[in-house]
Task: inverse folding
């Protein structure tokens, strides 16, 4: 399924951020609010956020302008009819959310994925308001959305510690790569990419560089970490 158009229900603090991030990522965006005043307030928030990103050097003026023209505001639910994915970002109230999902189920195409930004409510309960529960999912964004992953940089130690503390894993992903072996990981990644043709499984250049350099992990004493 190719995703080209993303819908966002709600243009408040979270909805406007989701709309901005999607537009900056190259997707066409339809964002809806219940009245023109709230819609304009949300669109103004998006413009202000992108202007600040330009000032901080995080976004070029050209990319800001390109993102802005991808966003279309509306007060009509029917505008979601052509969306590939619709993200609900309304008030944290189950009855309100179920009403949104029931409306989207009626309006959106049969293959459209319906997502909720909820931080606490049951996705199963929301899905029960539709005839497509298998195409309903949770997609929670952290606030502020545009700055959730601003640089995408962290040390190997921070990545490992974050996963161990946040997910209660016995070891972090970088340590695990060293434990399994980087050459083994590269072989698996290449095999999966050859079979699935999915870019998510393509081995990153750094992994190839590490294998070429002989840094295969714990078994040879050096990988991402030094075990000598």
Result:
């Amino acid at each position: 399924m190719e995703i080209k158009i993303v819908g966002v229900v709600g243009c408040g603090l979270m909805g406007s951020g989701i709309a901005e991030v999607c537009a900056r990522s190259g997707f066409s965006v339809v964002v809806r609010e219940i009245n023109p005043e709230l819609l304009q307030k949300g669109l103004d928030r998006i413009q202000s956020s992108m202007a600040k990103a330009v000032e901080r050097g995080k976004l070029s003026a050209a990319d800001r302008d390109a993102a802005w023209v991808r966003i279309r505001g509306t007060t009509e639910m029917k505008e979601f009819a052509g969306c590939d994915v619709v993200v609900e970002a309304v008030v944290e109230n189950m009855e309100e959310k179920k009403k949104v999902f029931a409306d989207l189920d009626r309006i959106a195409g049969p293959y459209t994925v319906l997502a909720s930004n909820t931080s606490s409510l049951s996705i199963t309960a929301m899905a029960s308001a539709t005839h497509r529960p298998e195409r309903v999912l949770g997609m929670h964004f952290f606030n502020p959305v545009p700055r959730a992953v601003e640089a995408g940089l962290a040390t190997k130690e921070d990545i490992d510690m974050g996963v161990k503390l946040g997910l209660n894993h016995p070891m972090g992903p970088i340590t695990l790569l060293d434990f399994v072996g980087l050459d083994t990981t590269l072989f698996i990644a290449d095999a999966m990419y050859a079979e699935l043709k999915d870019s998510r499984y393509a081995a990153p250049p750094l992994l190839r560089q590490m294998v070429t350099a002989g840094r295969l992990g714990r078994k040879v004493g050096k990988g991402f970490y030094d075990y000598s």
The chain has a mean pLDDT of 95.
